[in-house]
Amino acid sequence: MNAERLDLLGLPLNPVTMDGAVAWVHERLGEGGQVVTLNPEIIVQAHTNLALARAIREAELVTPDGVGVLWAVRRLYGRELPERVTGVDLTVRLFEQLGGELRVFFLGGRSGVAERAAATARERYGVGVAGCAHGYFGEEEEAALVKRVRASGANLLLAGLGPRQEVFLHRHKGRLGGAVGIGVGGTLDVLAGEARRAPAWARRLGVEWLLRVGLDPKRWPRAVRLVRFAWWIEREARRLPRQKT
Q: In the beta sheet, which residues pair with residue 129?
């Protein structure tokens, strides 16, 4: 895999393709490491969340998740990245290509969601299920949970913990028994049938976030963060006129 790293507003990005990301995870199974799928919202949050910023900077692989990240690389570096590598797409591709090589611990969602996601992965892709746990736990329960993951023999940990997933994986990645940790957001809900993905045309155009924001007022703060990200990138581009496109 290409080990090159770009800088986006002080955070790293590996300009990797989906195939490259799958190959990287495959090579690291049993060795451990953290994958962050970087999108504009996370970048904005990291500028006021020092623990999140550190987790991203010290992640072994940071993939481009979101059309905004592709635009930012084009704006700042004058290069076209070939595709997004999102949490849900990376998860499905890993299942499709590695199947029975995987022993996955499913972590996140409400009670029962991880179990239903695991059942789908096992039945549809032949994935080995190492364990399941819901995402509603406190700090005092983390140590016991990490021991469960380690004892399970998992070589892949899918963490759907929302805003805290990257920090959780960073804090514990040295104690996960060689499991590669990926923060996958709402992927477990999708696998469990609790949530639907945006239509294929929206995913292809990279505007599924716009549909979600428009249909759910609770997501409107996300739109504010996206506008802030775009403004920051434009400001940075003006400082680097030689890299404008």
A: 104
On whether the CB atoms of residues 163 and 42 are closer than 8 A, the answer is no
Position 4 in a domain: no
Q: Pairing mode, if any, of strands 103-108 and 156-160?
A: parallel
* Structure-model confidence comparison of residues 199 and 164, the more confident one: 164
Residue 68 maps to a domain: yes
Q: What is the pLDDT of residue 225?
A: 77
Kindly provide the b/e burial profile for residues 65-80, where b requires at least 16 CB atoms within 10 angstroms of the residue's own CB.
bbbbbbbbbebbbeee
**Residue 56 included in any domain:** yes
Give how many domains the chain has, as a whole number: 1
pLDDT tens-digit map of 121-146: 999 999 999 999 999 999 899 999 99
User: 35 lies in which domain range?
Assistant: 26-245
Q: What is the pTM of this model?
A: 0.88
Q: Residue 196: helix, strand or coil by DSSP? A: coil
- pLDDT at position 201: 42
161: three-class secondary structure by DSSP? coil
**If you average pLDDT over residues 10-23, what whole number do you get?**
97
Residue 2 located in a structural domain: no
Contact 46, 52 (CB under 8 A): yes
